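Limitations
The structure tokens in this dataset are predictions for the assembled complex, not deposited experimental models. Users should treat interface geometry with appropriate caution, especially where small molecules or nucleic acid strands are included. An illustrative entry is reproduced here so readers can see what is and is not provided.
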Amino acid sequence: MLYILTSFLFLIGLFGIITQRNLIKIIISISIVENAVNMFLVIAGYRNNGIAPILTSEADKAVITAQSVDPFPQAMVITSIVIGLSVLALMVAISLRLYHTYGTYNIDEIIKKQKERS
Amino acid sequence: MNTLLPLTVAVPLGTGFITALLPKKLNRVSDIIAVFSAGVILLNVIFLFGYEGIYEMGGWNPPMGISLYIDSFSWLMLIGVSSVGFLLILYSVKYMSIYTSRNRYYVLFFMMIAGINGTLLAGDIFNRFVYVELAAISSYILVGFGCSSRSLSAAIKFTVLGALASAVTLFSIAILYALYGTVNIAHLGAEITNLHSYNSFFNPLTLSAFMMVIGFGIKAAVIPFHIWQPDALETAPSPAAAAISTILITSTGVYAMLRTAYAVFNSITQLPYLIAFIGLISVVFGTLYAYSAETYKKTISYHSISQIGYIILGLGLGGSPIVHQTAPEAAALAATGSLFHIINYLIFTPVLFLKEGVYEYLSGKEKDSNTDYPTVSKAGIFSLAGIPPFGGFISKLMIIAACFMTGGLPGIIAGIIASAAAVHTVLSLTKKDLLKLKTSLELKNIPGFMKTPILFLSFMCLASSLLFLPVLRQRFLEPARTNIIPIHEQKPESIKK
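Predicted assembly:
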């Protein structure tokens, strides 16, 4: 069920990227898509009533392997969040520069102004 | 364990960090460091020749730990990438002096090379994804490096599509992890072959394969996903455009897509046809779009899409199980031809962008397609068009001949379409006056640092046709082919319920 919900969130983001003409809205849609994928990964490693996979003493080893959630997707999610953040920062920086040049975030207007200049 | 293997990723990463720390005044020093370490990477890769094996990072075992993996195919790509990278760095030393912050450019370039080398060597799909992202983020910034309004809008287009591609790829990896609980390529391939028990075509595994093809297809700029490529290549600095169009697209796009398709999804028998079909579409529409392109760089960009199409067409054909059973020679020929075409593509595309860079450098502004070019750089165009003595002719001929040799109707139709597109390439280049031999620019006006790479690559356009000789072919191309194309054995009856 949760898998379907995250896939739905992914599709919402995809819809936003395709239909929106405002750069900021496109950037928000991309963050939605990325977060949907991250949530999907976390759910893939989740186990009902699982405990945190932190090993405090040797004795806990059997308990951890039997009951903890899978730590591997969480490591992957952290990496992908960092990548997503850097891409987000880059996109915001580029669209700010575009705003300074053209005075608008709308893609259609940017293309129109570009054609007028050349 | 070979310690040279991690160095191919570590050296460019280290160079990136060192050049980032240097102040702007020490541009000369960053030039020297860049050329030196590009040479070190090249030497390093040459020493790796013939080595095949796994390097376990930090001594952790493969299913959980991170591993680097090299075989003949990765070596073939590595040597292409590092030699083209070295020549582009040599070229950039002079060319980038028209930009203000040259050392920042080296930072991005070496980060990109680190990402590319990592992509070629990564032993698990999640790490491959991370390396692809490293290369891609650097290339987004390289496209917008000039900070002119046009390059910025090309960069935002590229970034949005690239971010979408990475999200789709990650989704596919997440599905695989949810299904099989591992991301190591070798383990995943074995698990999928053993446990492949879906009876219907619509299942999570095919969805994952489809998403993987879309994600890497956007990076490879094949036709339905190509819209970022012409703009990005037109506005990026010339050596960066040459790097993006060759080493970035072939390794993070084509290599990553085909490697994942054949090593992980080898039990989905329909996937090679999808890949070959995408390739065929790119071949046709690439040349058609090139016909109506306005500027020289756009023309070349569209033509490079169609050349990538040939590579994907050949490797898709070579990997399909039915072709393997009915006409094994055709499959082998198609795959060998594609690998050969990758090498040719890596050689001729940089020439086309670099010689345009010479004009930008000398005149300080972009020229349109009506200018004349020094005769020697024509070799790139000739190899692209497939004029007989050049390497591009032989590899293209091999792929098209393999299409006909499959014997089936779809193969023959594909062959006819591909050969028509090859003829159309020549026609459209003739219409744009790019195939005429004219010299208007004296070679002595061009600085030595810019002249040497162009002359060397032009010479290699001709010399690469020697790879067709059986001695060299069996040494370089045949082992790589056996590495990438999976052996389709009679599968034991999968568990059916």
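Some entries come with short summary sentences. For this one: Chain A touches chain B through 40 residues (CB under 8 Å).
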